[in-house]
Design brief:
There is one protein chain. The chain is built from seven helices and ten strands. With about 280 residues, the protein is α/β, with parallel strands linked by helices. It folds into three domains: about 45 residues, no CATH class; about 90 residues, Bacterial OB-fold (OB fold (Dihydrolipoamide Acetyltransferase, E2P)); about 80 residues, no CATH class. The strands form three sheets. It has a five-stranded mixed β-barrel. The chain is extended. The termini are far apart.
């Protein structure tokens, strides 16, 4: 023990390594509400994913939306340091670009694509977009020569932008997605902490009972169905036929998702839901 690390910290770390403190669930299928799911955020200083002690709220404060975007950007951007394909690339921050007074012919920036102002007819469409990182925002230009990696790039996505910078404008030559990372690589960095929820202290993929059940039941299924309109006769009829078809070989679970009414704000909505789920 030292002035920084005491005996309790050492015991907790040892328990996590040996998995002696984990309480593995006795159930193969666990259901828990969204408010019981633990929340985590990436700490850039410690380079770890740490739990958030604050409780969740149905209606959050105004600044929570900005914090959520910043946390999402950090989670995506932190993978770059572990990506072998990007080790030789020198990335610039938007703050560094804005502080430069001369043209830079080849810059690479990781940013979130945003649209900060509405387009008007006298403005070119490609002048309406910006990219943002944790240091600032810069206007970007796309044209017919811009190359996009295969994929879908939407407003709010975090991507890699390469191009030339001059006079507060980034002329983008190429846009690429940040390479994905396997669960094995992520867990090798952050450990087997359970981020999803439930009683287990470690991730469900490390639960021996669940792993054995998965290997012994390769044909197990979970059926997810959305837009289950309980007030629609055709939907209820099709639902009955589907459940009858699975009667001889039922899946592990059926998960029904809304909307559960075809028309919103009906006077008898609660009665429809009550009768439909009977």
């Amino acid at each position: 023990p030292t002035a920084v690390v005491d005996k309790d910290v050492i015991r907790e770390i040892f328990a996590q390594i040996s998995n002696r403190s984990s309480k593995q669930s006795n159930f193969l299928f666990n259901v828990f509400d969204a408010f019981s799911i633990p929340r985590f955020e990436f700490d850039a200083d410690c380079r770890k994913i740490l739990p958030v002690s604050r409780s969740s709220k149905v209606v959050s404060d105004v600044d929570k939306a900005t914090q959520a975007l910043r946390h999402r950007f950090q989670l995506v951007a932190q993978r770059i340091g572990r990506c072998r394909q990007l080790q030789s690339i020198k990335f610039s921050t938007i703050e560094a670009l804005l502080s430069s007074s001369h043209r830079q012919s080849d810059v690479v920036v990781v940013g979130m694509l945003t649209q900060q102002k509405a387009c008007s007819y006298h403005l070119r469409f490609n002048h309406c977009f910006h990219i943002e990182d944790l240091t600032g925002s810069v206007q970007v230009k796309f044209d017919e020569n811009t190359k996009f990696q295969l994929g879908i790039f939407t407003e709010g996505c975090v991507a890699i932008f390469q191009g030339s910078y001059e006079a507060s404008l980034l002329d983008v030559r190429e846009v690429a997605s940040i390479p994905i990372e396997s669960a094995v690589d992520t867990r090798s960095t952050f450990g087997n902490v359970n981020w999803f929820g439930g009683d287990d202290a470690v991730a469900f993929r490390c639960n021996v009972k669940l792993c054995v059940a998965e290997r012994s039941n390769p044909n197990a299924q979970i059926i997810l169905i959305s837009d289950v309109h309980l007030d629609d006769f055709n939907v209820m009829k099709a639902l009955y036929h589907m459940l009858s078809g699975f009667s001889n070989d039922p899946p592990l679970a059926f998960i029904f998702c809304g909307n559960f009414c075809s028309k919103p704000r009906q006077r008898d909505t609660m009665d429809i839901l009550h009768k439909g789920f009977q």
